[in-house]
Design a protein that fits this description.
single chain, TIM Barrel, 261 residues, binds phosphoenolpyruvate, globular
């Protein structure tokens, strides 16, 4: 069975004091249940200090981005080597905010994924369509392009270190929209099928696919109970320990076998 995974993406939020407070509250509030993997991805400036706080806890450290080179003249960028040095295990790549606000292309994201996996990081690769694309019935086409151009050609041996986050843009942040559990499940099915065609049926079955887009303590059970929804990538509700930990609790509940009545 694929293990459930809850990842907090703090985006460009928190001060030093807030990062310390949040990381401490999450680390100390975690129940000792190892059925769910939990990670937080603070902004670059706080990785070292959050990493120190998380040491010895059940919460792993991740980054929100990287530059695909080991080192060099890349002003303002952060390398995979630096992330590993700071204790990161995970990196989020292809997030819609980087695709749409920072203009990252599928080819550039592909390069990042390859370099990150080569370096030994675990990649959380984000895909998802805009509202206009969904309304134009283009969801499958967009997912297909993002998967193929972002991942095709990756060595099979690295796939165990890759997971995918389906994040429809229209459901992210303060959009006011939420995907229904059925919409999430349907998109995950498309992603898994396509992944199986690109790589192999076997790798598709072991691939973890997370859902992201306004996940909160109220809708988490419904989403995480769906077959093929293996975790949640949480933005807004990862900025407070209470809702974030409540989502972790939902993931724990959804890993428990249903008792016969
Ligand atoms: C995200 O952008 O990764 C995200 C899931 O944000 P939110 O939970 O705020 O919708």
């Amino acid at each position: 069975m694929r293990q459930k995974f809850v990842i907090g993406n703090w985006k460009m939020h928190t001060t030093t004091a807030e990062a310390i407070h949040l990381a401490t509250a999450i680390a100390t509030g975690m129940v000792t249940d190892d059925s769910v993997t939990v990670a937080v991805c603070p902004p670059f400036p706080y990785l070292a200090l959050v990493g120190e706080i998380l040491k010895g806890s059940r919460v792993a450290l991740g980054a929100q981005n990287l530059y695909p080179a080991k080192e060099g003249a890349f002003t303002g960028e952060v390398s995979p080597t630096m992330l590993l040095d700071l204790g990161c295990r995970y990196v989020i790549l292809g997030h819609s905010e980087r695709r749409h606000i920072l203009g990252e292309s599928d080819a550039f994201i592909h390069h990042k994924v390859r370099v990150a996996l080569d370096a030994g990081l675990d990649v959380i690769f984000c895909v998802g369509e805009t509202l206009a694309e969904r309304q134009a019935d283009q969801t499958e086409t967009v997912l297909d392009r993002q998967l193929l151009q972002g991942l095709d050609g990756l060595p099979a041996a690295t796939l165990a270190h890759l997971s995918i986050a389906y994040e429809p843009l229209w459901a992210i942040g303060s959009s006011g929209h939420q995907a229904t559990p059925q919409q999430a499940q349907d998109a995950h099915t498309v992603i898994r099928q396509r992944f199986g065609q690109i790589f192999s049926e076997r790798s598709a079955q072991t691939l973890a696919i997370h859902y992201g887009g306004s996940v909160n303590p109220k809708n988490a059970d419904g989403l995480l109970s769906r077959p093929g929804v293996d975790g949640g990538l949480i933005g807004g509700d990862s900025l407070n320990a209470e809702p974030f930990l409540a989502i972790v609790q939902a993931a724990i509940r959804q890993t428990q076998p249903v008792e016969a009545v």
